[in-house]
Amino acid sequence: MTDPTQGPSFFQDPYPTYAAMRSRCPVQSVPTGSDGHISYLVTGYAEAREALGDPRLSKDTAAFFAGKGSRRRLHPAVAHTMLASDPPRHTRLRKLVTKAFTTGAVAELRPYIARVTDELLDQWPVGEQFDFVAGLAAPLPVIVICELLGVPEGDRPDVQRWSGELFAAGKPDVIDAASHSLADYMAGLIAAKRLDPGNSLLDRLISARDGNDRLSEEELISLAVLLLVAGHETTTNFLGNAALALLQRPAELEHLRKNPDDVPAVLDELLRFDSPVSTATFRFTTEAVTLGGTDIPAGVPVLVALGAANRDPERFPSPDLLDLDRNAASHLSFGHGIHRCVGAPLAKAEAEIALRAVLIRFPGIRLAVPPDRLDWRHTRLVRGPASIPVLA
């Protein structure tokens, strides 16, 4: 049995492969690695939504890998995050961070996001080729989440590099080393903040920890690392995918140029069309489950392909068409259920502010290379172009 998601063209455009798999069966087994183990890949919308909300699919990776003798040496604070846990632990940890990402809390951040966006766009060269990812999509989210957490400016380049290395598919040693660098850095930052407190989100989490709010020191470090990484890697890909989708469609791009106030209304369709998180994070069955007519035994991983689910024609007619008038609010790009992305309001605010600013300030922006020459991130977890050469 071969894994169709490992072909050379898959990262460039996974959707034909997903469509072919979905048409055969929306839930099917695929090989995992070279050791003969299998996982189940979910490509249908209804089945993906059901799987994301099914409590029989656990996210407790520590329980799954216990006793399996893995050679990996991920730092425990990275391996055992809130994302990799079930209730009641997940419920307790999520409650501590939810307030920071409410619509009201994000509204207070909007002037800062707008200011950083303008400062980044001020550096764009006019009439020369440059990289949209390096010039906006990568730095904006990391600056914003670092500001929110209270990470000093001088430390941000290191933090961004380590975070990127956590997604180095096929390089377990690089991922493991980055996990230790990030966790060690966060432990040091927490120690420094205890000596000189501020008013950042990280300072508030430290107060919760030191106020004995049932938060262990490792959980505190783990939350900080998770918010940092999840708070910018995915938004970078959201911005890159959205910009690329528009740059390849002059009529849609022109419409938004003339009507920049329409940007908030089209974000859900841009998220649906090319999801920045291609495959939801790890889940496994705690008992035998039947999903989409497929029997899945207990104790096996279930991979929910969010990008595939968002292109299911049963849910979204003509799914390969970017339709800016479509109501795509039910997309699964932020997940679904108790693990739905807590930072969704912040990601949408950043994308809205950044895309509007680019359209207004650089009305002539266009791709500088043919789309098939673009280099994509080589990982199944997140999806996004590694760079987007443009002319403005």
Q: What pattern of helices and strands is seen along the backbone?
A: HEEHEHHHHEHHHHHHHHHEEEEHHEE
Low-confidence stretches: none
Main sheet record: 3 strands, mixed
Shape: globular
Whole-Å distance between the termini? 47 Å
Q: How much of the residues is beta strand, in percent?
A: 5-15%
Structural class: mainly alpha
Tell me which CATH architecture applies here: Orthogonal Bundle
CATH class descriptor name? Mainly Alpha
CATH topology: Cytochrome p450
In short:
With 392 residues, the protein is mainly alpha-helical. It has helices at 15-24, 45-52, 61-65, 76-79, 89-98, 103-122, 132-137, 139-149, 156-165, 172-195, 201-210, 217-230, 233-247, 250-258, 263-273, 306-309, 344-361, and strands at 27-32, 37-42, 57-58, 129-131, 284-285, 289-291, 294-296, 302-304, 366-367, 389-391.
Explain what the structure shows:
With 392 residues, the chain is mainly alpha-helical. It has one domain (8-375): Cytochrome P450 (Cytochrome p450), CATH 1.10.630. It is built from 17 helices and ten strands. The strands form four sheets. Strands 1-2-8 form a three-stranded mixed sheet. The protein has a three-stranded antiparallel sheet with strand order 4-10-9. A hairpin with a 4-residue loop joins strand 1 and strand 2. Helix 6 (103-122) runs parallel beside helix 17 (344-361). The longest helix has 24 residues, at 172-195. It is globular and about 60 Å long. The model has no long low-confidence stretch (mean pLDDT 92).
